[in-house]
Structures
1.
Amino acid sequence: MTEPAFIHDSANEAHSNKAKGPRVRPAPVIAVDGPAASGKGTIARALARRFDLPHMDTGMLYRAVALNLWRWGGDPAHEFEALKACDVAAVDPEDPELRSEVVGGIASRVSAYPAVRAALLDRQREFAAQPGGAVLDGRDIGTVICPDADAKLYVTASAEVRAERRLGELAARGMKVHLDDVLIDIKARDERDAGREVAPLAKAEDADLLDTSAMSVEEAVAAAILLVEKRLAKI
Ligand code: CDP
């Protein structure tokens, strides 16, 4: 395996005569946040590959709670019932139902509960604190989970573009839905995620904004890598 580019700091080495060897940077933590279907998952996975870091899709934790609750027949309107569904380790990460729109909708409801967020906090912070660094994507990574992340991206796109993308993903999985319905769902999800009191979806002040509305996947990934490289060059 080749050495990740961020470890060897030749620029710093050149101007530091006293240095006995190259400065070894600590492995970075990269936070990627954004609304539904903004492309943050694809970008986070690409960053993890590029910088050779482990990746956590934190949305899957909330989806796992939602799936547990749904399978038990629990009521998402009750925080107490949602809290009982927080045993996310019991969920098979490969369960195809995790990615369904029903589960995504329930996830966005249960994720508004402070008790649910608190129950999932340690798992995320521990993942971020591992010595090898990490990439995490979600809604509150740069603001709450990893406020000291070395690089933060807030990935967004217009609701219409995101609805088109989500439609494409669903079609690829053989699901037939109308664009209008997907758009309504995306907007409702945005409102719930940004409007909740605890850890709302928000751009951290020190995050770089990446609007992917007019970008292809390749362009968005390339832009994200550039932004992160710039940030990591400063640590
Ligand atoms: O893929 P998509 O953007 O549709 O959703 P996701 O990232 O899998 O997250 C599902 C739901 O979990 C979101 O609508 C959020 O309400 C919630 N979530 C959250 O509150 N905080 C996170 N860090 C990640 C997800």
Note: Residues 36-37, 58-59, 62-63, 104, 107-108, 111, 138-140, 189, 193 surround cytidine-5'-diphosphate (CB under 6 Å).
2.
Amino acid sequence: MSIRIAPSILSADFGRLESEIFEVASADFIHVDVMDNHFVPNLTIGLPVVERLAQISPVPLDVHLMIADPDRWAAKYAEVGAASCTYHFEAANNPLQVARDIRSTGSRAAVAIKPGTPAEAVFDLLTEVDMVLVMTVEPGFGGQEFMREMLPKLGALRKAAADAGTDIWLEVDGGISVETAPEAVAAGADTLVAGSSVFGHLDRAAAIANLRVAAR
Ligand code: DX5
Ligand code: ZN
């Protein structure tokens, strides 16, 4: 199985975002963290910036919405060009409808769970989404320590998806490095978000290559 790598631009230099995303063009996706200071205690970028990034990016966007009311917003991010659009289960009033709204645009739909949310919470959604994102830190900030106690959720999701007759991607986000990537992959992850472990290195292409080797 080949592992997908998605560098998170949360750790990039926002003053030179265009060149930053070209520096990670060897990645499979670019992970874009949208935060609203309501669902998480941090604020980043919104719809107009994501729309422009989608136009200029050499790599498809994996948009991670850490926002309240994804019921209202998620499909709009898909419409402006997010190849994959992830909303938080905890934030959605009607998680099933959000998934359907995203998919109706032609984009991939994904649902994310915070560390305190059990994998079982999204079992009913597995046939309605293309990916589940298991957070391995509390969402809100880059550079936090990997929570390896989240890893059993991946196996539980993989089994539940097989039982439901569906094949979904499993993404992990938070604290992924050359040290922790092998653990996440062994536990069942196939898509790895990496912020500080890519943009914390001057040679981003080498950092991505090193993650690929570690995750193999
Ligand atoms: C955190 C974000 C992550 C963050 C990961 O809430 O969702 O995508 O950028 O950063 P690292 O890889 O540094 O933990
Ligand atoms: Zn993220």
Note: The chain is about 35% helix and 20% strand.
